[in-house]
Amino acid sequence: MTDAAMTKPTTTEELPTAQPEAKKNEKYYLRFTLPQRYLHAVLFTSFLGLAATGLPMRFSENVPARFFARAVGGFGAILFMHKFCAIVLTLAFLYHVKDIVTRAVMNKEKGLFWGPTSMVANWKDVKDLVGHLRWFVGLGPKPQFDRYAYWEKFDYWAVFWGMIVIGFSGYAMWFAPFFARFLPGWALNAVLVIHGEEALLAILFIFSIHFVNTHLRPDSFPMDMVIFTGKETEEEFRRKRSLEFARLARQGKLEARVSDPPVYWWVNFARVVGFTAILIGLVLLVLTLIAYFGTV
Ligand code: HEM
Q: What is the pTM of this model?
């Protein structure tokens, strides 16, 4: 060990703040802004909370569900936590909708609903999907992607519409006497089925397909840190979104996206949070499958 290595840092400036050696000389680019990362954090924590509390209500006869209920003070307490997480998720959703409306109506932002930076699917996404399937079986080249790949758009819309269906049915159950004023009785029974089935679909989709698409695929394994740090290296940017990189370079907008390397402690913190979230999701997925096939 060198003398320098043995000397303890005395000021915070001497502590490592950016990524150590391996990625020190890499150039970083900003992909997600701070509000976008906060929104995703609120989204995934409230969703995990809703899944962890909704599933025991759905499979209340199940042993792990009863164990959980006993541990937290009964099913009444579980429902209370479910409603708390539902309010948090609803606020996040409303914030996102307000953001889109502001950008579209007030700021008249171009490319929000169409073009290479939009979340709306277009003809290229269809071609990319077909091209990707062909590439999987060795029949063609790997498709190149712009800002959002077709599966990222699919994940986004699955959550967006899922949120409307699950949210509406959830509030209809929560405030049943109010909704009974203008909904027929059978509809109030239907919302319980719709809520439960749509929730199951969302849980299975997020904890399997979304996890694999974003984190567990070979390109990003074991976890894509970009949603936590907001930044990616030039190598990642070129490899994963070569069309966006080339487009920004052409338009002279690339330099505006250059960013400092992510702060070291934040990367580690995000790793712990991210892996914990993935682990909880996978445990819930396994418990759901066991409960579902055990009760069919
Ligand atoms: C705004 C969003 C939401 C609201 C207002 C809401 C509200 C509710 C309410 C009031 C119940 C009824 C509990 C009872 O009295 O039996 C319930 C059940 C349930 N919720 Fe939610 N919820 C929301 C989102 C979610 C999400 C995102 C999930 C999945 C991740 C979920 C999963 C479940 C499940 C599995 C049940 C049990 C359904 C059954 O018994 O078949 N909920 N929810």
A: 0.89
Identity of residue 249: A
**Collapsing DSSP states into helix, strand and coil, what is residue 244?**
helix
pLDDT in tens, 95-130: 999 999 999 999 999 889 999 999 999 999 999 999
Q: Bridge-partner residues for 18, per DSSP?
A: 263
List pLDDT tens digits, range 209-261: 999 988 888 888 888 899 999 999 999 999 999 999 999 999 999 999 999 99
**Atom 18 in ligand 1: residue holding the nearest Cα:** 54
Query: What are the backbone angles phi and psi of residue 149, rounded to the nearest 5°?
Result: -80, 165
- Residue 210 Cβ inside 6 Å of ligand 1? The answer reads no
- Domain spans of the chain, in order of start: 26-295
User: Which amino acid is located at 157 in the chain?
Assistant: W
Question: Is the distance from the beta carbon of residue 82 to the nearest atom of ligand 1 less than 6 Å?
Answer: yes
Whole-number Å distance between alpha carbons of 60 and 57: 5
Over its C-alpha atoms, the chain yields an Rg (Å, rounded) of: 23
Instruction: Provide the edge-to-edge strand list for the sheet that holds 258-259.
Output: 231-233, 28-30, 258-259
Model confidence pLDDT, tens digit, residues 256-291: 999 999 998 999 999 999 999 999 999 999 999 999
- Treating both helix axes as pointing N-terminal to C-terminal, what angle do 150-174 and 185-204 enclose, rounded to 10 degrees? 140
- Calpha distance 188→172 (Å, rounded): 7
CB contact at 8 A, 117 and 146: yes
State which fold the 26-295 domain adopts. Answer: Fumarate Reductase Cytochrome B subunit (1.20.950)
> Measured in angstroms, how far is the CA atom of residue 113 from the centroid of ligand 1?
31
The identity of residue 203, as a single letter, is I
Mutating to test ligand 1, I would choose from 44, 50, 284 the residue with most ligand atoms within 8 A of its C-beta, which is 50
Axis-axis angle for helices 264-295, 63-72 (nearest 10) = 130
pLDDT tens column, 44-60: 999 999 999 999 999 99
